[in-house]
Amino acid sequence: MIKDRNFDDLAQKFAENIYGTAKGQIRQTVVWQDIEQILTSLSSVSPLTVLDAGGGIGQLSQKIASLGHQVTLCDLSSEMLTLAQQEIAKNGLLEQYRLVHCPVQEIGEFIPEPVDLILFHAVMEWLAEPIEVLTGLLDIVKPGGAISVMFYNYNGLLFKNLICGNLTHIEQGMPHRKRFKLQPQQGIKPEDVYQCLTDAGFEIMGKTGVRTFHDYIQTHMVGDYSFEQVLEMEQKLCRQEPFLSLGRYIHVYARKPFAEETHITTTNSNNSNKDKG
């Protein structure tokens, strides 16, 4: 049975593997491009209130904080929060931050009012009830605000196992292999995430595949490429189908409409139905 994962035992190794590698650099680059789009859409509000939910060491939220915005970062792991505090202090951003040691499910107790932006990155795949947790977070986004969600893509996991010939593993339902401690516990189906967002009335603003082909390069094959070429190609393909949907992770960002926008949409829909009658 899947349980929520606490990274106290692997905090340093996890941070190094996520942020100190080519994989991490690709992830940071393409997702930050989306974050810039989000910040532009929210530019009428300054400073923004931001929640980095399950934020680890807050690599991306620190870039947001450096622009003058206020960030609350929560994490289940006290060790991860210690690393976050060290990194934030090193970057001179402590005044922009509030660090909260709690599970994502309880962060609402520490947020006095809805926030302008939530980052929910690479957390769902470590949770027992990922869609339920996402639904709860949507409630604390301010009308007109946005949420940025990145998740370990079920389709990417399936494709990786297919090209590696792990058909028996697929037939068994791709259970998590405990010996791979840094591999996420499960893949999340994109349609479930998109449906959760739209059911809550959010408007999806964009989608990006994170590492659409990098992780599928066979290391035993002799290729002709540099990392710079890989990064450039990833940026070129990451928002195009079918590559987007094959990303090892998918980043989707969505906006919560203002109440009056919801009313207008509902009114227009009702008028359209009357016309059909």
TrEMBL record:
GO terms for molecular function: methyltransferase activity. One of its GO terms (biological process) is methylation. Keywords: Methyltransferase, S-adenosyl-L-methionine, Transferase, tRNA processing. Its EC number is 2.1.1.-. It holds the Pfam family Methyltransf_11. InterPro entries: Cmo5U_methylTrfase, Methyltransf_11, SAM-dependent_MTases_sf. It catalyses: 5-carboxymethoxyuridine(34) in tRNA + S-adenosyl-L-methionine = 5-methoxycarbonylmethoxyuridine(34) in tRNA + S-adenosyl-L-homocysteine. The keyword Magnesium does not apply. Gene3D superfamilies: Vaccinia Virus protein VP39. It comes from the Bacteria. S-adenosyl-L-methionine binds at R27, G54, G55, D75, H121. Residues 51-147 form the Methyltransferase type domain. Catalyzes the methylation of 5-carboxymethoxyuridine (cmo5U) to form 5-methoxycarbonylmethoxyuridine (mcmo5U) at position 34 in tRNAs. Belongs to the class I-like SAM-binding methyltransferase superfamily. CmoM family. This is tRNA 5-carboxymethoxyuridine methyltransferase. The gene is cmoM.
